[in-house]
Specification:
mainly alpha
């Protein structure tokens, strides 16, 4: 039986690296994807606001 803490750790590991770490068993992939996208977009928005010149110099592909 998996405890809440184990599931939470797996979920956070997936959010940090969704391409390499699978979502916990029983989680709907499309619903978890909403969290992944939200986290990425909030982080990207924050960095873009703080470092607009760096973003412009790097270009969109390198910035991503």
């Amino acid at each position: 039986m998996m405890t809440f803490q184990i599931v939470q750790q797996q979920f956070l590991a997936h959010l940090r690296n969704p391409k390499q770490v699978a979502a916990p068993i029983g989680f709907n992939a499309s619903r978890v994807g909403v969290y992944v996208d939200f986290l990425y977009n909030k982080f990207n928005d924050s960095l873009s606001a703080c470092f607009p010149v760096t973003q412009q110099l790097l270009g969109e592909l390198a910035w991503q």
